[in-house]
Structures are given as structure tokens and as C-alpha cells.
Design goal:
7-stranded parallel beta sheet; Rossmann fold; 42% helix; 398 residues; 15 helices; 13 strands; 2 domains; 6-stranded parallel beta sheet; alpha/beta
């Protein structure tokens, strides 16, 4: 469906929704508490375990001393794993899910659109609104005063890439975390005939990773080389390729560690040089595992910019990866790792990766140079301070 039809559909829906919006506005004026004022309002779907949720929490934490914020969660979370990270911001938090995520009583979602947008419009202190992939956040964006800047964050090319289309005119800037995903959205814009003025609204801000408490010994000439895989065992990750690499290097004394829920994706009989760490939720434990390894391996058929690469670089690991997403933009052969020549020829991927691992096992000086380069690059590009500065500039926080 072309962009013009998306807009027509949205306008028709708005006419039909107006009675609910008006009801919400009246309820806000009758019952809403306007004594508390905020510089900004943030809309997130969840606070359960997830990569997007962790990034959302980071944004609130790096801004906690700069602005006074209000956080709304709009969907039911599966667990409380990351709620404390949001609470660390010191901002006020409200879980709207009992009103906005109820299929049998969906009209409450419609009324809340008027209720919350009116609260924002009546707040004389508000400076901006931020939407981190919240469907509810998109639905209320047309009802927020045009004088209040709105911003959105898109983590990948996913379902929200379509959901957001009717509402992009209400957003001052769109943040995306990988150049490859920006290109995906440009191609979508072309297919839908989105006006060119919206292309320049997209801005790249890569995710941040915290610096390790201490760096391990990266010049381990006498210890066994250790290769690490971090992630899920889903089809596109192709964990079986890493298992095949381990099998070929079993007699070389090279150890392969797997962090994540990958056992179902591994062969029934794994080689003796494989160590399984399971799913790790504690960042400190994951940091220790990174510190104990020398190389991160990425065997994916598709990626954006994996945060595990950023974490591994920050901890001084060399990177060996398939040429997908933004990886070729961050990894230079013989500088901070190796980008393999193919993303689809599995036999070639295994052979090249095995060859590069052997090379680094024999040339520990090159490995140490890659380690140092990655730590320096990660501090500069992916550090929390850089992340904070970019969001402060985005929101015009002086």
C-alpha cells in the first residue's frame, strides 16, 4: 500500500476514534494530576529481558541527571528482569498495560490515547516525547501538540517499520542503530513512495556498551586460544557452523565457548573442546566470560550491528565474522579481526574461519594488536559517554 493510502486510512480512523479521544481528554481534566511536571515522556512496550529493553534502560540512565522524565510501559512484560534498570534512572514509572494491552476491553486503549496525550499537552514543562517501538506511542503521536518535538527509535527492520509509516510526519527525528537498517528503510520508502523530506529525518546512533571493570591479560602467549560464540541458537545464527569449526580444531588445543541458549542447535555429539555456559543474564558474569576468551565468532546469515560485537570489542576480543549488516563497516582485516568472504557458502565460511583462527593462534602478536585496537575503538565509538552526548544533541539538551 502506497504512503498516500496509509495517510488516508489514518485520517479515517481518526474520525472514528474522536469520541474515545474526547472521552479520554475529559477524564484527564477531571481526574488527572497536573501537579507533577516533566521535561520528557518516554513510551516503551516492555521492561522484561531483551536487547531492545536493555538499550531503552541505558537511554534513561545516561539522561537521568540531565532531565526529569516520565516512563510509560504499554504492554504486559513477561518478567521483571530489567525493571530495576529503568528505576535506576530515578524517573517516575507507570505501567499502562492493564488499560492499553487488553484485547477484550480494547476501548480502554482508545480512551487512554486521549487521556495520556492530554496530560502531555497540559504539561507546561515538557520539552520532548520519545517512543521506543511502542505501538501505543505511535497511536497517540497525532494527538500531541505539534509544538512538542517527538522522537522515535527503531532497532531493526521489523514489524514497526510498517506500523510507523502513517505516523512518521509527527516525528522530528528517527533514530536507527545500524547503517544497514537505514538502507533497508530507504528501500521501503521507495517502494511506498514516501516523500523525500522524511529521508533526512533518520539519524544513526549506535548502541552503547559499558566498559569492563578491568581488562584481562590480552597477551596470553602460553595459554590455549579460546573462541567465543554469544547469542541465540536460532536458524539465522547458524550455530552448527561454529560447532563444525570446533570439530576441525579439536586437535589444535583451541577451546570454543558458547554463551546462550544454543544446545538445541548443536549436533547431538559435540567435540571435546566445546564448553557450554548456558543463558547468562548477569552482565558481570558475561563480562568475565568475554575476558576469558580471545576471539568472538559470528556465523550469522543476517545481522544489523550485533551488540555482542560491541561488547567483545570493549573487552578486547578479535572478531571473525560473516560479511552481513554493518559488520564490514566496523571490522577491518588484519586490523581488528577478519571479515569472511561469504555469507551463504557454509563450507567456505567454515574453512576460512578455521584458517583465520589458526593464524591468530600462531601469531599472538597480531592477536594482541587486534585486541588493543578493538578496546580503543570501542571506547571511542560505543562508550556510554559517547552514547550520552549523541542523545543529548538529539534532544537538544544543553
Amino acid at each position: 500500500m502506497r504512503y498516500s493510502r496509509w495517510i488516508l486510512k489514518r485520517k479515517i480512523e481518526h474520525v472514528l476514534l474522536l469520541p474515545f479521544i474526547i472521552t479520554g481528554r475529559v477524564l484527564q481534566r477531571m481526574t488527572g494530576n497536573q501537579t507533577r511536571h516533566y521535561d520528557c515522556y518516554f513510551f516503551f512496550p516492555f521492561y522484561h529481558t531483551g536487547g531492545a529493553e536493555y538499550v531503552h534502560a541505558q537511554i534513561t540512565q545516561v539522561l537521568k541527571h540531565r532531565v526529569k522524565g516520565k516512563i510509560y510501559f504499554t504492554r504486559r512484560s513477561q518478567n521483571d528482569q530489567y525493571r530495576s534498570l529503568f528505576e535506576n534512572s530515578g524517573w517516575d514509572i507507570t505501567d499502562l498495560s492493564k488499560w492499553t494491552d487488553h484485547k477484550l476491553w480494547y476501548f480502554t486503549n482508545l480512551i487512554m490515547r486521549g487521556f495520556i496525550s492530554t496530560k502531555i499537552n497540559l504539561d507546561s514543562s515538557v520539552r520532548f516525547v520519545f517512543n521506543g517501538q511502542s505501538n501505543f506511542g505511535y497511536k497517540i503521536s497525532p494527538w500531541i501538540k505539534k509544538s512538542i518535538p517527538q522522537f522515535e527509535l527503531i532497532h531493526s527492520y521489523n514489524s514497526f517499520s510498517a506500523i510507523r509509516i502513517p505516523y512518521i510526519e509527527y516525528y522530528t527525528k528517527t533514530v536507527m542503530i545500524a547503517q544497514s537498517r537505514i538502507e533497508d528503510h530507504f528501500r521501503q520508502y521507495e517502494r511506498l513512495h514516501v516523500p523525500h523530506r522524511f529521508y533526512s529525518n533518520i539519524e544513526l546512533i549506535q548502541n552503547a556498551v559499558a566498559a569492563p571493570a578491568q581488562n584481562g591479560n590480552r597477551n596470553r602467549k602460553t595459554t590455549s586460544l579460546k573462541v567465543l560464540y554469544v547469542g541465540r541458537g536460532t536458524r539465522e545464527k547458524r550455530v552448527h557452523l561454529v560447532a563444525a569449526m570446533a570439530k576441525k580444531l579439536e586437535k589444535d588445543g583451541i577451546i570454543f565457548g558458547f554463551a546462550g541458549e544454543v544446545q538445541a542447535a548443536l549436533p547431538k555429539h559435540i567435540s571435546s573442546n566445546i564448553e557450554l555456559y548456558g543463558n547468562i543474564n548477569d552482565p558481570k558474569i558475561l563480562e568475565q566470560i568475554y575476558q576469558q576468551h580471545d576471539i568472538l565468532i559470528i556465523s550469522s546469515s543476517t545481522e544489523g550491528m550485533p551488540i555482542v560485537i560491541q561488547e567483545a570489542m570493549m573487552n578486547g576480543l578479535a572478531i571473525i565474522a560473516t560479511p552481513v549488516g554493518d559488520i564490514p563497516l566496523e571490522i577491518e582485516n588484519y586490523i581488528n579481526g577478519f571479515v569472511l568472504s561469504s555469507s551463504d557458502k557454509e563450507t567456505l565460511i567454515i574453512e576460512e574461519a578455521v584458517s583465520k583462527i589458526k593464524q591468530l593462534n600462531e601469531d599472538r602478536e597480531l592477536l594482541a594488536e587486534m585486541s588493543y585496537t578493538n578496546m580503543e575503538k570501542a571506547y571511542q565509538k560505543f562508550g556510554l559517554r559517547t552514547f550520552q552526548k549523541k542523545y543529548e544533541r538529539l534532544f537538544n539538551i544543553s
